[in-house]
Amino acid sequence: MKRCKYIFVTGGVLSGVGKGITAASMGAILKAKGYRVTMQKCDPYLNVDAGLLNPVEHGECFVTHDGVETDLDLGHYERFLDFETSKYSITLSGSIYKELIERERAGGFHGKTVQLVPHFTNLVIEKIEKASANSDIHIVEIGGTVGDYEGLPFIEAIRLFANKVGRRNCLYLSVVYVPWINTSKELKTKPAQNALKDLRGFGIIPDIVCVRTEKPCPRSICEKIAAFSGISGDAVVNLPDINSVYDVPFNVLKSGVLEILNDFVGDDSDPDMSKWADFSAWRATDFDKTITVGLVAKYVGNEDTYICVTEALKAAAAHNKVNLDLKWINAEDATDKDFESVDGVVVPGGFGARGTEGKIAAATYALKNDKPYLGLCLGMQAACIAAARMGGIKNANSEEFGATEKDKNNVIYIMEGQKGKESTGGTMRLGDYPAVLKKGTKTYDIYGKKDVVERHRHRYEVNQKFLPQIEKGGLKVSGTSPDGKLVEFVEAPDNKFFVATQAHPEFKSRPLDVHPLFMEFIRSIKDL
Predict the structure, then answer these.
(1) Residues with Cβ < 8 Å from 66, sequence gap 6 or more?
(2) In the prediction, which pLDDT does 418 show?
(3) Whether residue 401 sits in one domain with residue 506
(4) Where a domain ends, among 251, 278, 305?
(5) Catalytic residue ranges
């Protein structure tokens, strides 16, 4: 049996330098060569998962098919490699410490002293081996920056990993940032040199160094980094900023890295990037028609907060051959003028009462004015509340926002059996859940089948005792859970396009295989 090979990606100088996109691009190239490629992120945060991280600070919380709340980089992995990540694809320090402490308390170490080395590092190695099962090549991104205190055990773990599987089966890649100093009009390599010096001090000499710059840099910059870092000049390449992350694989190919990758895997064949090339050409095309889509958002100030949604919209626009003008509408102060100024409205997910009236107002406007509307998770709940208000329950709302059974206005209510639970994650539906679509509905026609599976991340459900009022307000249920107890899809049959789902279909959308809900939403606007 052929041994799996491993690529470890670290970053230097600062976080957010593009490790995830670089790693995913490497994976896309290797997959285009015919290999089975999987990916994993080791994140030094002491959180057990990403469920409680602030999306404005950290970006979107991505959910795997098996129900783990993770870093947004796993979304990049899925979009670039078109595979499903899992609970093994994310490893946070908090989860490692939690598992070690629970094992120690249960007597699992038989009285031995529990230490970072070897116990923490061995458990990280174990997680990497599980995540790489059935892979030809497994790519592991180490979050944060080399030198961070909390990240040191992961650096040590990937150093030790080479001792276990053989150095020839491991490739180390470091992504470093070279800043432009505007006052002196020059690029400064010293931070990158220091980062690589730190990495060498931890026992890892990278096989490839990717130099990130805002603009293409002279070859002399890469050669200088190579000379001062003890690395071959051919192994130091420049990856400047570009307009689309989906062009990064082509930048990687042009950089000369392919020769190193080919030598690592022992295969000189060229990757088949034809589909990527077609998509890249569509993304770069200035089409005859431009459409404007309003994203009614409560998490503003960071464009990564809804990155799966925005990437799905951009890809759908490219495949529909229209230019997309994405307008962010702050849900806290949204007005009808905002909704009137766009061709269609997307209301994505979220938690808490802040900004919800703006989302409900968006759904109300779309229902009354036949404005194309796509509701995702909270976007469906907002639509049901809007319809219920139009159907006679003037104060209709969600229990999450203060509605009560006593007041008979809890159109959205807590899931049965979840009341009283303290753990935030424990009260949620997470990951894949099936739904059955009703024939004769637009939703059924969009999917083209009866049985579908979508990923979820939510706590509250539509209270079906209010369906008469919701239907009076213009909505009908177009899909439910297999047992019929949970509402999964609603639509406005009299509108050009008004579809909302309790799920997060954006998690399953791919640049080369766009989710049908996004495709049809954009198409409905294009055909106006």
Answers:
(1) 86, 87, 431, 432
(2) 58
(3) yes
(4) 278
(5) 377, 504, 506
